[in-house]
Design a protein that fits this description.
Blueprint: E1 7-11, H1 17-26, E2 32-36, H2 48-64, E3 69-72, H3 75-80, H4 82-88, E4 93-94, H5 97-107, E5 112-117, H6 119-124, H7 126-134, E6 139-144, H8 148-153, H9 160-175, E7 180-184, H10 192-199, E8 204-206, H11 208-222, E9 236-240, H12 244-253, E10 261-263
Parallel strand pairs: 1-2, 1-3, 2-9, 3-4, 5-6, 5-7, 7-8, 9-10
Helix pairs in contact: 1-11, 2-4, 5-7, 5-11, 9-10
The chain binds D-glutamic acid.
Length: 269
């Protein structure tokens, strides 16, 4: 049996494209449908109820597109809406938190792990709980970074302003002598060079996306959902709730190639 239906993924905006690229690299035959909720970005300062409401509409849309599996390409939703969505929908779903936590626990030598993420993710304690349930002796230092997502979305990733903001946010983590840092927001891998420069070469940076996509591939294999054939080329469709041309332009500036983006209105109320 082969299943050529697409994999669905979603984020508040551009960040989830760092998860798409892992799918392209680890499952190159698979088609994808991406939704970026650019009308509501940033998600990091939203309430749980708002996030559940957005996720519900987005997943209903992805299900209407006949997706076979959904990757939450957003740490904030992985922390706060994934459990509720699993109860509402039958389509199998993967979040980023447990895969990221596992990688961090296996990477740390001095048992001091940092997390940088949105306020909502930090406040949810999802990473802190996941890490400590794997290893209670790991000390976890969490830093919210509310300015970074709006700056990436504004197309300012390569500016001094972003570099300065990154350095300020990681300064307490540096003082805490972490040896491993989880980039706990899918927008942050676009800023990896800044993080490296601010924290130095001895820190291990964890991007949960690769581990989450690998686990998704294993799940899909055991559920018999993989396409398993490269005869038909994969297709990749991108939808946003805001301005499609702006999204396409910024995605290209971030090195994600030239993509065609469509606009869709989900909130009919
Ligand atoms: N990229 C998302 C995350 O991983 C959402 C960030 C936001 O919109 O604040 O959390």
């Amino acid at each position: 049996m082969r299943d050529s239906r697409p994999i669905g993924l979603f984020d508040s905006g551009l960040g989830g494209l760092t998860v798409s690229r892992e799918i392209f690299s680890l499952m190159p035959d698979e088609s994808t449908i991406y939704f970026g909720d650019t009308l509501h970005v940033p998600y990091g300062s939203r309430s749980i109820q708002e996030l559940i409401n957005f996720a519900d509409q987005i997943i209903a849309f992805l299900v209407s597109c006949n997706v076979k599996y959904i990757v939450f390409a957003c740490n904030t939703n992985s922390s706060l809406s994934l459990q509720a969505m699993r109860k509402r929908y039958q389509v199998p779903m993967k979040g980023l938190i447990e895969p990221g936590a596992k990688l961090a626990v296996s990477s740390t030598v001095n048992k001091r792990v940092g997390i940088i993420a949105t306020e909502a993710t930090v406040n949810s304690q999802a990473y802190q709980r996941a890490i400590n349930s794997l290893n209670p002796s790991v000390s976890v230092f969490a830093q919210p970074a509310p300015l970074l997502v709006p700056l990436v979305e504004a197309g300012m990733s390569e500016t001094q302003k972003v570099f300065d903001a990154v350095c300020e946010y990681v300064s307490p983590l540096k003082s805490a002598h972490i040896d491993t840092l989880i980039l706990g927001c899918t927008h942050y891998p676009f800023l990896l060079a800044h993080f490296r420069k601010c924290l130095g070469p001895e820190i291990v940076f964890i991007d949960p996306a690769a581990a989450a996509v690998l686990e998704s591939k294993e799940d899909m294999s055991s559920l018999n959902l993989l396409k398993k054939s490269s005869k038909v080329a994969p297709s990749h469709r991108y939808f946003v709730s805001g301005d499609p041309a702006d999204f396409a332009f910024k995605a290209e500036s971030l090195g994600c190639g030239r993509i065609t983006v469509e606009r869709i209105v989900l909130d009919k109320s």
